[in-house]
């Protein structure tokens, strides 16, 4: 399994994920995400649930020194997951060169910290299977062929009352939206990397958006309104963050679902968020399970809608204590397996791709390196992994078809055998019934004249009988049969043996 970045970064102004520009097999893959944030160098719980992808929303450390970052990466390396994505937070101060230098830090520490998180195979992050994301949009493909795009940013608005820290910006600066969206009172400072593009699946930021799980201990809403405006514009499936954390409070165990439709107003500005649905998760249930997650009802409502799920995954409560379990979220993601007859490739400039592939030993053929005029897939895009994925899918379909045919044959054979057995048993029963009806043993005995001795009791004809006829014991049998207390079969067994 490997992660390979492509050559280009993503063009934020384009919409490469729209349905009009991609032709994929209409399949969805359930992917399980485990979301953490604000662990601050504390030992992670040992009962973390299994997952496909780990998302850490920043503040891995308390002091932000390179040594602490290294220890945090080693702790994340112990989590079992196919993919581990991490961003910095305002506590990772040695990764923010400007802030670190302003505090008198050595430039060598900044270089050391960045070397720890680099994509180089020998870095601390790579050794522990961690992908440290810079600000921007990235695309990943999992071994199950599920593909998702994720926007990541470590930046949060600065509030003087709480002091300055790393990766912060003034609250009147909009770094998440294109210029046409920024209100007149704010300054647009967005770059190609910092702008959240349309069509992205997941937004992972260190801080929350305005009025969404952003209340501080003193009931101040510390979220970013520009980020909220970007979320309302992009409408991702998931927005995960941290940054706001304190001792356990009720809202900490809530998830917010943003429902869209129509235009509403936020502080005098129009936005497309129609309502914010708050889903409560019990404290005891979360601690018992080792994670927080939506209850079945809200989870089904989320799957059936186009809402955005917002979760605050901050784990620290009291200083140095991880009081809040992480979040576990299941998302249905599109499959990346292409269809040869429908694939239309639109190369996107300035876009970052990452591929995670399993063993490539299954390669039924090697495509020509020379493109043909009838080829729907450019040769440079028809990679070794594409052939492997197509062959694997074909093998699964053949196996599934074979099992279906086998089960159908067994079902038909079993049905015929059961029908034949039932017919045989019914025929035997009818035959025995006909034999018993043919004996008519009681009627034959009843017509005998001079039969004066009972074969059961040895007693003779009743002396009170006025004329010859059936003995009294035969009359008793006949009466028993008529009243339903005896049948001819009973008489036959007692007189002749079974």
From TrEMBL:
One of its GO terms (molecular function) is hydrolase activity. Pfam families: Metallophos (PF00149). It comes from the Eukaryota. InterPro entries: Calcineurin-like_PHP, Metallo-depent_PP-like, UPF0046_metallophosphoest. Residues 32-246 form the Calcineurin-like phosphoesterase domain. Residues 1-24 are annotated as: Disordered. This is Metallo-dependent phosphatase. It comes from Decorospora gaudefroyi.
């Amino acid at each position: 399994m490997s992660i390979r970045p492509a050559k280009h970064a993503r063009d934020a102004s384009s919409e490469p994920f729209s349905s009009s520009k991609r032709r994929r097999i209409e399949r969805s893959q359930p992917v399980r995400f485990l979301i953490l944030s604000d662990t601050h160098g504390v030992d992670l719980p040992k009962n973390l649930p299994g997952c496909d992808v780990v998302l850490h929303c920043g503040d891995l450390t308390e002091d932000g020194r390179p040594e602490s970052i290294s220890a945090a990466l080693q702790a994340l390396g112990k989590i079992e997951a196919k993919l581990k994505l991490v961003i910095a937070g305002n506590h990772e101060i040695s990764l923010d060169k400007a802030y670190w230098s302003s505090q008198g830090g050595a430039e060598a520490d900044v270089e050391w910290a960045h070397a720890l998180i680099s994509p180089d195979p020998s870095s601390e992050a790579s050794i522990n299977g961690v992908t440290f994301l810079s600000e921007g949009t990235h695309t990943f493909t999992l071994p199950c062929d599920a593909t998702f795009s994720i926007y990541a940013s470590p930046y949060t608005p600065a509030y003087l009352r709480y002091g300055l820290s790393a990766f912060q910006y003034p609250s009147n600066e909009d770094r998440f939206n294109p210029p046409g969206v920024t209100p007149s009172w704010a300054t647009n400072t967005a770059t190609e990397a910092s702008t959240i593009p349309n069509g992205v699946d997941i937004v992972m930021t260190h801080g929350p958006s305005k009025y969404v799980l952003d209340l501080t201990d003193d009931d101040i809403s510390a979220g970013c309104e520009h980020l909220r405006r970007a979320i309302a514009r992009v409408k991702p499936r998931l927005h995960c963050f941290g940054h706001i954390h304190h001792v356990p409070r009720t809202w900490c165990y809530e998830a917010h679902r943003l429902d869209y439709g129509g235009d509403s107003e936020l502080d005098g500005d129009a936005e497309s968020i129609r309502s914010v649905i708050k889903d409560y998760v019990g404290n005891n249930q979360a601690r018992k399970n080792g994670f927080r997650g939506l209850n079945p009802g809200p989870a089904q409502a989320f799957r059936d809608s186009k809402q955005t799920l917002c979760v605050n995954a901050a784990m620290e409560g009291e200083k140095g204590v991880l009081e809040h379990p992480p979040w576990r979220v299941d998302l249905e993601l599109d499959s990346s397996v292409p269809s040869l007859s429908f694939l239309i490739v639109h190369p996107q400039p300035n876009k970052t791709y990452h591929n995670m592939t399993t063993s490539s030993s299954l390669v039924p053929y090697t495509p020509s390196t020379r493109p043909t005029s009838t080829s729907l897939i450019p040769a440079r895009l028809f990679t070794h992994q594409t052939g492997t994925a197509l062959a694997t899918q074909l093998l699964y379909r053949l196996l599934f078809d074979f099992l279906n045919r086998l089960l159908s044959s067994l079902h038909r054979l079993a049905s015929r055998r059961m029908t034949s057995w039932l017919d045989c048993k019914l025929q035997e029963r009818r035959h025995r019934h006909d034999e018993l009806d043919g004996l008519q043993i009681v009627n034959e005995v009843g017509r005998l004249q001079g039969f004066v001795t009972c074969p059961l009791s040895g007693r003779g004809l009743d002396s009170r009988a006025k004329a010859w006829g059936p003995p009294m014991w035969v009359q008793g049998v006949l009466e028993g049969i008529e009243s339903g207390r005896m049948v001819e079969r009973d008489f036959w067994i007692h007189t002749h043996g079974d």
